[in-house]
Amino acid sequence: MTKRTYSVKGMHCASCVAIITKKLSALDGIAKADVNLATETARIEFTGKPLGIKVMNELLGKYGFSLVEETPPKSAAQEIPTDRHASKKQEKLDELLHQKRQVQVALPLALLFFAVMMWHTVAALVPSIPQFPIDMETWHSITLLVAAWVVFRIGEPFLKGVGTFARTGTASMDTLVGMGALVAWSYSAFSILFPTLRDRLGLPHESFADAAIVVIGFVLFGKYLEARSKLKTGEAIEKLVGLQAKSAIVYDNGKETEVPVETVVEGTMLVVKPGGRVPVDGVIFSGSSSIDESMITGEPVPVDKHEGDTVIGGTINKQGAFTFTATGVGTETMLARIISMVEDAQGSKAPVQNLADKVAAVFVPTVLVVSVLVFLLWLGIGTPALGFKSALSYGIMAIVGILVIACPCALGLATPTAIIVGTGLGAKHGILVRNAENLQTLSKIDTVVFDKTGTITRGEPSVTSIEPFDKNDKTDELLALAAGIEKHSEHPLAQAIVTAAKERNIEPLKVSDFKALEGVGVDAKLGDDPVRVRKPEGNESARPEIERLQQEGKTVVIIEQNGKTLGLIALSDTLKPEAKETVAELQRMGKRVVMLTGDNRHAAEFIARQAGIDEVVAEVLPGDKADAIKKLQAEGRTVAMTGDGINDAPALTQADVGIALASGTDIAIESAGITLLGGDIGKVTQAITLSKKTMRVIRQNLFWAFIYNVIGIPIAAGALFPFYGIFLNPAFSGIAMAGSSVSVVTNSLRLRAAKLS
Questions:
Q1: b/e map of 29-56 (b: 16 or more CB within 10 Å)?
Q2: Kind plus residue range of the DSSP H or E element containing 330
Q3: How would you classify residue 457: left for phi > 0, otherwise alpha for psi between -120 and 50, otherwise beta?
Q4: Would you say the CATH fold of 459-575 matches that of 2-72?
Q5: Which residues, at least 6 apart from 76, have a Cβ–Cβ distance to it below 8 Å?
Q6: Which CATH number among 3.40.50.1820, 3.20.20.70, 3.40.47.10, 3.30.70.100 corresponds to the domain 2-72?
Q7: Where are the transmembrane segments (predicted)?
Q8: Most CB atoms closer than 10 Å: which of 350, 413, 440, 522?
Q9: Does residue 76 have a pLDDT over 60?
């Protein structure tokens, strides 16, 4: 199956989304089409080879839409995210400028005619207010001429919606606004241009042309504010794109040359100066530095880097110059992958949106039917009670008001705008969400399962205790001897002992004749004395101190000199500093916390006690980890699994939400729905908080979008008139409609300031 993403032109509301989705999905060769109003994109899955864009546009063109294919790059190495996003941003800015120019003309006119409308209304109620200085007949003629220009010139996109409906029978928000404005203007034109016929037919003298001006003015203003707000929802992606370096310094035969970053290929030797931005991913060849990775991982403390360490493109070199070899360029850098992942998440749909999509699919046709029925109802019931002229006048106002106030836009924007802002906020904190469904599911999880090694623990051994057998010996002397011997070994345990000496500022003793003994340990000479670091032999494991340490899952090595055992050093994988607080916070949230590991029970329970985890599932084979998740799910639990290794991949896939640490393997990250950058499990609680806050905003948006239409449409139809004598002027319907979409987007933007910890 092939997937492609296209920009969509001409899409303005949830009904547009429903039309495009339905029409594309019906085409042979398309398995699935996801259309997103907030990002204005269509993600299409093809059953085989992608359909030509011409074929799809021939179909969509009938309904006023078109797809734009992004220009494929020459190669992954030559594409950088900056180019694509810069062009898309410029397109949106150009479109926004066009909307702004329309609003600069339409809004002042709308405000002027709205003010005159209010003057007439208030003057009729309050005798002390003077009448409008221009006589009504002249004013109505002026209004009709201005309205003609506003409706047929500025409101042309809305009239196109009416034309599309007439040709194809499909309707959108543009159709509703266009029909409302057209009805208002058409009756006014008939009333003013043919007064004799109007009187002979007994029709009201009302003019609704001012309502057409106000409606189009305020709707355009609302769409402009909505577009401007939608531009802000994508600021997270914009900031990520802004991290991309524009150039790189190539080091070749002692010469330094600055080149565009897109020309850098894998294997190129590059130089980074103090204060410079790392251009691409790579491995340090020479030099050392402290690098600010906060913009990628969310971690505020700069990370020390030395020869052999990896560096990430987009991060900032704080001090020290170094050279490094490029290992990831173009779309293969971590930054490019992060941008791609955030884009995918922002373009995806949450299951909670399904209801809104179903409503949007039938919304506009239903509104059209309701408006006609209400008009007929006013004529049928209103005529006996109010007379034909008044009934017709109210009927026309009702049909215009209903068509204008009905707003599928708010329904279409409720979920995707919150998802865009929420996933962007997550990326800012080093939390990458694969899709909206994972974000929604994460808000419902009640059980969090952690792998042990590399997730709860650091994933590498370190010295936990040094115990001389002779109480007169000093631990520092024992460590100095052990480090002197192990300095010549490359074994992970040996490196841990050397690191412990370095951290304690202990100088390793100088030894000679180093020899590694397979399965036993290492030998050397200290002067003329034979010295050895080895594992316990024979009955040594029965010694109380050794037995105790081994039951805690620690590895014990014995240090001896001249055949005499001097003491022991215990090593183990240690708890990550944030693990205990993370577990405690999850428990405060009411989550069940479980450790799932292949390690022996003693080692697992020792680490679990340190972390504050009560429930441990140990000695589980990699293939059985997924079964352990299934058992929890069989209990009715909604499970999030957090891991970092290849052996965690099946469990991450089985879990309702898989959470991978980016410090782990690529296969684990590919299997997960959420990725935490920097390997910090403290972000698990932040991710849960993010999901809950995002879902809360989505529910608020959907509630207000539904309630707005549920209350607004009956009021526009005149539901208050029989009880209170109040009838909503169509002008107010236009204001309300403009405000509904803007309020939904503004509510979503509040997420940008949300605190996750």
A1: ebeebbbbbbbbbbbbebeeebbeeeeb
A2: none
A3: beta
A4: no
A5: 330, 331, 332
A6: 3.30.70.100
A7: 105-126, 138-155, 176-195, 207-225, 359-379, 391-414, 702-725
A8: 413
A9: no
- Residue 510's pLDDT is 93
Q: Is 505 left (phi over 0), alpha (psi -120 to 50) or beta?
A: left
The Cα 428–Cα 239 span in angstroms is 9
| pLDDT number for residue 300 | 63
367: three-class secondary structure by DSSP? helix
- Comparing C-alpha atoms, which of 663, 621, 622 is closest to residue 644? 663
Comparing 55-69, 126-140, 280-294, 656-670, which segment has the lowest mean pLDDT? 656-670
Q: What is the pLDDT of residue 745?
A: 85
Whether the per-residue pLDDT at 72 is higher than 80: the answer is no
Residues annotated as catalytic are 451
Would you list the DSSP string of 417-473? HHHHHHHHHHHHTTEEES-HHHHHHHTT--EEEEEIIIIIEEEEEEEEEEEESSTTS
- Residue 202 DSSP code: T
CA 241 to mean position of chain CA atoms:
15
Q: Mean pLDDT throughout 100-113?
A: 91
Distance CA 597, CA 198 (A): 85
Domain ranges of the chain: 2-72, 245-335, 420-456+576-692, 459-575
**Angle between helix 209-233 and 136-149 (nearest 10):** 40
Angle, helices 81-125 vs 136-149, to 10°: value is 170
Tell the residue number behind the tokens 């479980």, with chain if given. 594
User: What DSSP string runs through 589-606?
Assistant: TT-EEEEE-SS-HHHHHH
CA distance 646 to 91: 42
Residue pLDDT, tens place only, 556-576: 999 999 989 999 999 988 899
3-state DSSP percent of the chain in helix, strand and coil, to 5:
55, 20, 25
pLDDT of residue 84: 62
The topology under which CATH files domain 420-456+576-692 is Rossmann fold (3.40.50)
Q: Where are the alpha helices (DSSP H) in 378-387?
A: 383-386
**What's the length of the chain?**
757
**107 phi and psi angles, rounded to 5 deg:** -65, -45
Instruction: Check residue 385 and give left, alpha or beta (phi > 0: left; psi -120 to 50: alpha).
Output: alpha
Q: Which range, of 580-589, 669-678, 713-722, averages the lowest pLDDT?
A: 669-678
**Burial category of 415 from C-beta neighbours within 10 Å (exposed 0-12, middle 13-18, buried 19 and up):** buried
Q: 8 has which bridge partners?
A: 67
Structure tokens at 160: 């196109």
Contact 277, 291 (CB under 8 A): no
Question: Domain 245-335: which topology?
Answer: 2.70.150
User: What's the CATH number of domain 459-575, 3.40.50.150, 3.50.50.60, 3.40.1110.10, 3.40.50.300?
Assistant: 3.40.1110.10
Q: Which residues 6+ apart lie within 8 Å of 315 measured at CB? A: 243, 277, 278, 291, 292, 293, 295, 296
Distance spanning both ends of the chain, measured CA to CA: 40
pLDDT tens, 77-94? 445 555 566 677 778 888
Burial 486-523 (b: 16+ CB within 10 A, else e): bbbbeeebbbbbbbbbeeeebebbebeeeeeeeeebbb
If 0-12 CB within 10 Å is exposed, 13-18 middle and 19+ buried, where does residue 628 land?
Answer: middle
Exposure of 744 by Cβ count < 10 A (0-12 exposed, 13-18 middle, 19+ buried)? buried
CA-nearest of 396, 409, 400, 417 to 364 is: 409
Structure tokens at 287: 């030099």
pLDDT at residue 334 greater than cutoff 90: no
CA distance 207 to 188: 5
> Hey, which residues does 129 pair with through a beta bridge?
none
Report residue 284's pLDDT band, with 50, 70 and 90 as the boundaries. Answer: very high
